[in-house]
């Protein structure tokens, strides 16, 4: 029986990832370069060590890249794009349904705590989460399973009693490695990426109720 749900943050609750990519894509275009989605996807849901957009821009242009200048451009572009973003469809409905059913609610994010909590509070979602585990709490972020193992333990459930909701391949790898059920809900950016094994895929959380999702997960062979 599934006793807890654990949400990712970036790209799942709030689509911060598409604006992040689009801002860098515009910067690349302004420098006469192209930013392939496949390369960018290597770093989605994890740290920058898997893909360095500054280094790659320098390789594309053959010129030195001043990170501070790129960051200044990025801040303006990303900020403007983020103003257009709202909580993804169905997210709060799932949180409300979980509360009503007595299902524990956690969050596991590879981002810093300050980033995650600021947006949760801004959108009125912070109080739903009993447990929040971020990059600040672990030695290894996704795709390593440590975040999901830590969140499960803090919620008082076994990993096999929890369902992870993710939008990125790196996030799903972490959830599967930890032993959780896995549901992917890709955003416009991550829908273009290849996913490994998962239990259920939704285009939107509005497609099915949380109860129906958990029912389908519990019917899967493990």
UniProtKB/TrEMBL annotation:
One Pfam short name: Hydrolase
Signal peptide positions (record): none
InterPro entries cross-referenced by the UniProt entry: HAD-like_sf, HAD-SF_hydro_IA, HAD_sf, PGP-like_dom2
CDD domains: HAD_BPGM-like
Organism superkingdom: Bacteria
Protein name (Swiss-Prot/TrEMBL): Phosphoglycolate phosphatase
């Amino acid at each position: 029986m599934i006793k807890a749900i654990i949400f990712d943050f970036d790209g799942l609750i709030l689509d911060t990832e598409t604006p992040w990519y689009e801002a860098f894509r515009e910067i690349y275009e302004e420098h006469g370069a192209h930013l392939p989605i496949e390369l960018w996807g290597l770093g989605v849901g994890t740290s920058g060590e898997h893909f360095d957009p500054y280094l790659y821009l320098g390789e594309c242009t053959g010129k030195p890249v001043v990170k501070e200048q790129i960051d200044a451009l990025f801040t303006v572009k990303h900020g403007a794009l983020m103003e257009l973003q709202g909580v993804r469809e169905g997210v709060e409905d799932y949180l409300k349904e979980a509360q009503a059913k007595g299902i524990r609610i956690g969050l596991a994010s590879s981002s810093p705590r300050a980033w995650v909590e600021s947006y949760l509070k801004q959108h009125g979602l912070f109080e739903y989460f009993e447990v929040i585990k971020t990059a600040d709490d672990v030695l290894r972020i996704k795709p390593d399973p440590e975040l999901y193992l830590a969140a499960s333990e803090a919620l008082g459930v076994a990993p096999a009693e929890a369902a992870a909701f993710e939008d990125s391949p790196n996030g799903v790898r972490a959830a599967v490695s930890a032993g959780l059920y896995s549901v992917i809900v890709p955003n416009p950016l991550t829908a273009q990426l290849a996913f490994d094994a998962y239990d259920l895929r939704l285009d939107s959380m509005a497609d099915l109720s949380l109860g129906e999702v958990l029912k389908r997960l519990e019917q899967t062979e493990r």
